Structure formats: C-alpha cells, structure tokens
Amino acid sequence: MRQYELVLLVHPDADEERLSAVVERVRRVAADHGGDVTGEDGWGKRKLAYKIGRFTEANYHLANLQMEGGGAAVLDNALKLTDDVIRHLLIRLDEE
Q: Which of 1, 24, 35, 62 could form a disulfide with 30 if both were Cys (CB 3.0 to 4.6 A apart)?
C-alpha cells in the first residue's frame, strides 16, 4: 500500500454537510482501492495566498490516505469533477 497526503480547498460557503460529503467521497474512493483514510485534520476557513477564480478564502482540509497506486488517478479525477472542491493536491509520501 502506498501512503498519500491530500490537501483540499473547499468552497468557502460550503456548510458541514457539503464538506463531509466531499470527505466521504475521498473515503469511498480509498476504500474501493483497498485502502482507507488514516488521519484527517480540518483547518477551517482561511484566506488564500492569491485569488482562485472569484474566491479569496477557502475551507482547508488535510487527509492522510493509504491505498493502492491506481486509486490516486481515480481520486484525482473524482475531485476534479466535484463542484465544491476549488483546488486539491495529492502527493505520494516517500517510503522509508
């Protein structure tokens, strides 16, 4: 299993229900590829360093995942199609 770290920038007007739907989608994709979410941390609403579209702030969410390699591409595509996600960054952590 590979270890990943995911940072999500979610629409600033998204309520807890919409945010949890995005996180649940991440969990479902990880589970479909033999993994799970090993840790989560909601950072709350923060100001962006630069304007993204019309947004100047976003809800930040960090998730640590483990899943098989093919799941990263599927998760990346799923997050691109999610309207509430402004930006995301999925990186594979180095194996030691």
A: 35
